[in-house]
Structure formats: C-alpha cells, structure tokens
Amino acid sequence: LVANFAVRYLLRPPSEAAELAAAGLLLAAFSASVCSLLAITVDRYLSLYNALTYHSERTLGFTCAMVLLMWLLCLGVGLLPLLGWNCLRDQSSCSILRPVTKDNAAVLAVTFLLLFALMMQLYLQICKIAFRHAQQIAVQHQFIATAQASSTRKGLSTLSLILGTFALCWIPFAIYSLVADSSYPAVYTYSLALPATCNSLINPIIYAFRNPDIQKSLWLACCGCIPSTFSSRPRTSSDV
Fold first, then answer.
1. Which of 27, 48, 63, 91 could cross-link with 129 by S-S, CB 3.0 to 4.6 Å?
2. What are the transmembrane regions (predicted)?
3. Chain segment 132-158, per-residue pLDDT in tens
4. Nearest to 36 by CA among 127, 126, 170
5. Does residue 228 sit within a domain?
6. What total of structural domains would you count in the chain?
C-alpha cells in the first residue's frame, strides 16, 4: 500500500510500467493476505474433520507445496494489470484501484465476497464439529455443565471476534470497490484500504490474548516463566 501511494503521488508523473507494477504489487499482497486466511480456515476444518489422519496426510512437503501454489496464484493475480486489466488507454473506465478498470475491480470484489462466504461456511462447520467434540469429551470426563458451557462460550466468542474483525477490516473496502469509481476522492480509498492491510497485524494479537498456548510462549519469551494459573487450568476444546 505504501509503495502504491508513493508511485501514484510522489512520482509525478509516474511511468506506465511503475504504475502497473505498483498496482500489481498491491493486488498480489491483498490476494495473499485473504488466501492465507482462507488456507488457515481450510486447514482448521480438515484438522477437525479428519482428526485421525490429519497429521499423517499434512506432511511438511505437502504444506510447502500448498503455500508455494497459493503464492504463485497470488502473483498471477498481481500480473493482471500488466496483462490488460488496466485503464491507461481509457481513463473514464478506471476504478478506485487505478489503473484497474471498474469492471475488473468489481470482479475482484465479488470474488472476495464469495471467499468470505466460504470462510463463514467453513467456520460454521468447525463450530458444529468442535461443539460435538466438546460434548463427547464432557460426557467421557463427567465435566460439570457450567464448565462445559463456559468453554463453549469462549470458543464461540473467539470465533466471533476473528470473523467480526475480518469483516470490519475487509468488507467496507470490497463494497466501496463495487460502488465507487475513479472520480471519488483518493483519500476514501486509502482510508478504507488501510484497515484491510492492518487485519494481518490484528489477528496475531487476538490469538495471543485468547489462546493459552501462545500466552505460555509469550510468558516464556518475556520473563522465562509460566504463571501457576496456566499449569493448573485444564485444557478445553475452546483452546484449539
């Protein structure tokens, strides 16, 4: 985002190659961010759906291959402005993602909304599976109902926080890409794109405050010790 801003407003006038490259870099980075979150969602779903065979199927080589494939796909999206998805020859067709055309920006925005709907569906399935597993564990270990309800509420609140943050950061920018065009002030575009870029910074903070495993690692890294409250607390399904 910083590189795109610098090319458009600090290099005057920017060359066509620089403008297309900056737009491609922005598209590739945004695509990689969304695809990474989608890949994590799919991985979580498979880890619960195929719990018995997950660790044998998800080898290091398979994971590296999937990450490489994802980045190649995102780099392909970044090349679209160079391959003709630009409005350099027709300024009236420009979108807020200049030099991407308005029609092509609409395609990207709709694609994002469909990916978000897919993530929502997968997380709903994850919620159902995790709730079913929690019930089975509660029966086996004869947990009291209040403890089980508290664990379920924590898991649902964490899930809601992750999805709510993602929606607040990304959906306004996606919808704005559908309804706005190049005649709108650029400050609106950057003010809506900035939260989207910050979403990848917010997610680790959410996990650090909600996941006890990450909290333990932070305590060890900062002070070399683990508070007694962690060692005495039983692990629950919401910690996953």
1. 48
2. 20-40, 60-85, 105-124, 156-175, 187-209
3. 777 776 666 655 545 555 555 666 677
4. 170
5. no
6. 1
